[in-house]
Amino acid sequence: MPYRVTFVCTGNICRSPMAEWILRHHVAEEGLDVEVDSSGTGSWHVGDDADSRTVEALRRAGYRSAHVARQFEADWFDRYDLILALDRGHLRALRSMAPDEEARGRVRLLREFDPAAGADLDVPDPYYGDHADFDEVLAMVEAAMPGLLAEIRTGLKAA
């Protein structure tokens, strides 16, 4: 059975699809049995493509992307081994939706996996910014990948 990871941000058009496609790239490179997707805490972008600046940042960095935004639903908790919030607001929203303590324990912040992040574990929302803001988010997501991949490998061994 594959290890299942989802990323959650606000509208599911900037940060979470970026993280999704970066992780998809890395697990494919390593041949890991991992399913990756993403969603948002809000519904206003459901059905939309990823923000064009997200797609451009991913392409500039050599990643693919294809995306249709969706909203995270409370009955999805048992689908995932790891639910990664992109900031503390998403973390609070997800944990408040969780049906029990076990489900709450599967919700973590992405930047927890970046040892250089220190206490600043939020990935800022680039939506009102420019291309540099999207590139900054991409760099933050990439910095968390080695630690996240180590966590996934551990999870795969335990399964």
Automatic annotation (TrEMBL):
Record EC number: 3.1.3.48
The protein's enzyme class: hydrolase
Classification via Gene3D superfamilies: 3.40.50.2300
Superkingdom: Bacteria
Stored SUPFAM superfamilies: Phosphotyrosine protein phosphatases I (SSF52788)
Keyword line: Hydrolase, Protein phosphatase
Domain called Phosphotyrosine protein phosphatase I: residue spans: 3-151
Pfam family, one: LMWPc
A molecular function GO annotation: protein tyrosine phosphatase activity
Keyword presence, Transport: no
InterPro entries listed in its UniProt record: LMW_PTPase (IPR050438), Ptyr_pPase (IPR023485), Ptyr_pPase_sf (IPR036196), Tyr_phospatase_low_mol_wt (IPR017867)
Family membership noted in the UniProt record: Belongs to the low molecular weight phosphotyrosine protein phosphatase family.
Protein name: protein-tyrosine-phosphatase
